[in-house]
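User:
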Amino acid sequence: MERPVPGGLRGEKEEEEEERVLVSEHSWRPCPTARRRVQGCLEWVKRQLFRVGEDWYFLFILGVLMATISFTMDIIIARLHAGKTWRGFHRRLGAPRGFGGYLSGGAAPLPTPLLQPTCGCTERSETSGCSSTSRGPCTPWHWLPSPPASPRASPRTPEVSQLHPDLPGSLKCPLGDGEPLKFEFWFPHPRLALGSGISELKTILMGVVLEDYLAIKNFGAKVVGLTCTLTCGSTLFLGKVGPYVHLSAMAAAYLGKMRTTVTREYENKFKQHEMLVAAQAVGVATVFGAPISGVLFSIEVMSPYFAVRDYWRGFFAATCGAFMFRLLAVFNSEQETIAAVFKSNLKIDFPFDLLETFFFLILGIICGIVACAYLFCQRWLMVAVRKNQLTAKLLATDKPVYTVLVVLLFASITFPPGLGQFMASRLTMKEYLTSLFENRTWGLLTLNASGVAKPGELWQEWDHPSATIYGTLIFFLLMKFWMLILATTLPLPAGYFMPIFIYGAAIGRLVGEVVALLFPRGLYSEGPPRPIIPAGYALAGAAAFSGSVTHAVSTSLLVCEATGHMGHVLPTVLAVLVANAITQKNQPSFYDAPIIVKKLPYLPPIRSRHIASYRVVVEEFMERQVVALAKGDGFQEVLAALDASTDAEYPVVESIGSPTLVGTVSRSQLVTFLQSHEHPQALQGEKLAIMGTLGDDCTIEPIMLQFSPWTSLHQAYHLFQLLKLQRVFVTRSGELVGAVSRAELRRAIEDVANPK
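Assistant: Predicted structure:
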């Protein structure tokens, strides 16, 4: 029997029905039969296209898209850099040569200051956007409880909301006395567009969720900021490999969402991971035009474990990207056909003598030692900048001021009529590599400069009347060592692989020129002369230094693909192996250092020499105090559990007397449970639902993996890395006795590596 409806309500319902009818009439479209046929044809075409797998199309789009963006960025950067060249700058402005040159050397379109969200606080920190005042340390944004609607609101609402900020409320500043946030930035989440991005991507691929780091809304900020940074040229001495890998990952994440929309499937985390793996290879391949080494480099640097099923995806996407990148150069009349990015003219009839292998070994040792010093100083400076009060305040509140000060310092040092003339500072990043890979021996060219050299050749930038080429190379290495380390602290979208690549090429060029000076006819004095080729040492030095800094061996193939020269591949691999052996034993990777300094979720590697990892068992380092719930628990127990910890999921046992682990329940489900059930102290007329239990109203997920107390540290480490785990529960005979998370595992590994 229906309840009578008041007249006012009846009138409102009639109006709603009338509006519904009007909407239905207006939503009618002509030719319904033809529309259904067209829609059916489109569905048939989609089924036929996706018969081979939809992955092919999205990977192809990813490669072509990123190649086009990369080439467009290179064109814009080249034209902007040509417009600010110091030799043309003073002529156009009519300024004095020195003053105009100084302005043009330091004047570059730096990235627009990306403002942070502000609130009622007076100062802002880098991590949260709020100040650290006497009220306590600043925390990231939280969902704070809204005040009750009226004084008669039930006591359940304010009590649960005050205890648990997970419940819905209004977005407010945690330290701004409840004042709502005022967003004042131009690009969404600009802080996420800073830096290289590879360290954070490594963390994401380990299974850690970094909110909004791969959001497509950050794409524009990263592109614009990276373009402006690279326009500074060799003044800042920065590259684009790392940020471009991050850009590729953003595009891959967005294409993955498009794929689920087109195919009408649910989002699959495994598919998303496969797209991200392919994006890493695309990012490297579209910068160097090297698909094979791009795939191998991404595997070595990004993933401790790699699924073979993702291999073809990376190769296909990287090949499409590299091919499109070089094809655009042909269309732009830069080259007549598809060729290497840094095409060299090295001779391959007799690339090196067998006895030169010894000097390549020496080169690998030098690169390994310099790489260790570089990694140590770089990590030390990152920590020092964060601990120093002045620099920490500048980086937290005045990033543009810190950036301008560092750039002015670099511009003053690299000013061509000043110290820059001893560092070949007129050259761009690409011209640096082109000159260092020069096939001719600079020592011989300087002796016959009047008869052999042509005006305007790149190698002449390294020849100064007051210093020999050896002096300029040594000065370049000394100055760029600390300048590159300082540049890594700049809050700019920038990469660091290309600078260390050039730095290694300079080390190799110096060693090659010295060997050529010592043995002008080659290592054999008898027979026809077989001169030393310093460019081969530059190739090996670039691969060895960049490979040792990043803990990668694929750089030996990268130099071959980027230059199109394969004659020195064996000595290059030898130098890379020697340099890696020295660096990996003493220092973490360049991309692991930011993870350590920023305290991102990180598992340090277990070295093969740490045999004790097989003897340490989980029972020795597991967390014993675990907040657990029973299947029969009600509102009060769930409320206490949420108040006791902030875990994302909670273990569920059979009962308090029988702690047999039956599964887990997520925090969001527990919050929903609280919202839909009554509080024991709620008023009689405000009850939401009858009293229920956790086992009846929540979905308990089964446990797929458990540790035994006698599981070794070595086994636990590899399972965490392979399955990308965040937390595993420990059971003895089915009963819950503890839990192991990444924090406990990391402390155990550090204790094994550094016993007290």
